[in-house]
Design goal:
This protein is mainly alpha-helical and 152 residues long. It has a single domain, classed as Four Helix Bundle (Hemerythrin (Met), subunit A). The chain has four helices and no strands. Helix 1 runs antiparallel to helix 2, helix 1 packs parallel to helix 3 and helix 1 packs antiparallel against helix 4. The chain is rod-shaped and about 100 Å long.
Length: 152
């Protein structure tokens, strides 16, 4: 009888230990899956933001040039409307970055890159426009540099 009780207790103890280890393994696997999903979401959001901002900068440059070359022309109006569409896309991409990024420096750089790009068309002359365009490019590069460690 004692042997049977010891066998039952041993079996129960073995089952309990197995359950604890399986639970820990499952929790670790779930945590790794969440971390990988967040990493993939960040890669997607950061890439989309960079692409949208590059397009937005191109659109702002195009708007500035069309407004100077032929103001009030259909081409200038089309460039203006296109820049609004590109701004909307870039702003949506910025919101995605804000949702997945937990680095305050990267967030500040993303917002700054958007803001710098947003005011490019206000440049009074070609030199200022070129400087603003370069500043927008550099700020985007700084954002990428700050955000990259979180996806490696």
């Amino acid at each position: 009888m004692e042997t049977a009780v010891i066998a039952v207790i041993g079996t129960l103890l073995g089952s309990l230990i197995t359950h604890v280890f399986q639970r820990q393994t499952t929790e670790r696997a779930a945590q790794l899956a969440r971390s990988e999903q967040l990493r993939q979401d960040r890669i997607s959001a950061y890439s989309a933001f960079a692409g949208a901002l590059v397009d937005y900068r191109r659109g702002r440059n195009d708007r500035w040039h069309r407004a100077r070359q032929t103001p009030d022309s259909p081409a200038a109006e089309a460039a203006r409307i296109d820049s609004y569409r590109l701004r909307s896309s870039a702003h949506q991409a910025l919101i995605r970055v804000q949702l997945v990024c937990d680095d305050p420096q990267a967030l500040a750089l993303a917002a700054s890159a958007f803001a710098v790009t947003n005011c490019m068309h206000e440049a009074p002359d070609e030199a200022d426009r070129a400087e603003r365009s370069e500043q927008a490019r550099e700020t985007l590069s700084e954002f990428i540099g700050a955000a990259a460690p979180s996806v490696r």
